[in-house]
Design goal:
Blueprint: H1 12-30, H2 35-51, H3 56-62, H4 64-110, H5 112-115, H6 122-132, H7 142-150, H8 152-185
Helix pairs in contact: 1-2, 4-6, 4-7, 4-8
């Protein structure tokens, strides 16, 4: 057992370390880390179980009638979340696809020589685009889906809060930022229109 009294459960330093490790976990989920996520969870477990002397592992092993249904419930909720998350992932991929496709086609039409081989047709450009932007397949997303199941509480928190910040707060404030920029630049803002 480690003797680190400043990291005792409930102290400021314990909660600071716990929050930092969870923030790294959120970042790792977003960046699709593999081993880094597992290492981070192990560090959180060490912090809670050993350093803070909570005895989490002993508690889980001493109560198998609570642990087994708890683990099964955790996996079931994670599996349900993975379907929701897959749906949200597909929506995001579709939006990205349509935006990129529009960009490719506009560039093809506006400046074919700069972006494509002069012998290349619009269909060739789209074929190249489809190779660069393949249809999402479950078989190629196994690791991603497993991460969504295993780390569902963090993933759900991140996706929901990130979507709220982007879609609600940013979209609501974007027009105000635009008005402020127009006000500051005044008459010269028309030069960019």
């Amino acid at each position: 057992m480690f003797e680190l009294p400043f990291l005792a459960f409930g102290t400021f330093w314990f909660w600071l370390a716990f929050i930092i490790l969870n923030l790294f976990l959120l970042f790792g989920i977003e960046e699709e880390w593999g081993f880094g996520l597992l290492a981070n969870v192990c560090l959180i477990f060490v912090l809670v179980d050993i350093v803070a002397d909570v005895g989490l592992l002993a508690l889980l092993l001493a109560n198998p009638l609570l642990t087994i249904p708890g683990v099964c419930s955790y996996i079931a909720i994670g599996t349900a979340w993975s379907f929701t998350r897959w749906y949200l992932y597909l929506i995001d991929r579709k939006e990205d696809y349509l935006k990129e496709k529009k960009y490719v086609l506009e560039n093809y039409k506006q400046n074919k020589a700069a972006y494509f081989n002069e012998n290349q047709t619009q269909e060739d450009a789209l074929e190249y685009f489809h190779k660069r932007f393949p249809f999402p397949k479950v078989s190629e997303s196994k690791a991603r889906i497993i991460r969504w199941i295993v780390f569902w509480p963090w993933n759900a928190f991140w996706k929901i809060s990130n979507k709220f910040v982007k879609d609600f707060i940013y979209e609501k404030l974007a027009s105000q930022y635009g008005k402020l920029a127009s006000k500051v630049f005044g008459d010269i803002s028309k030069e960019w229109e």
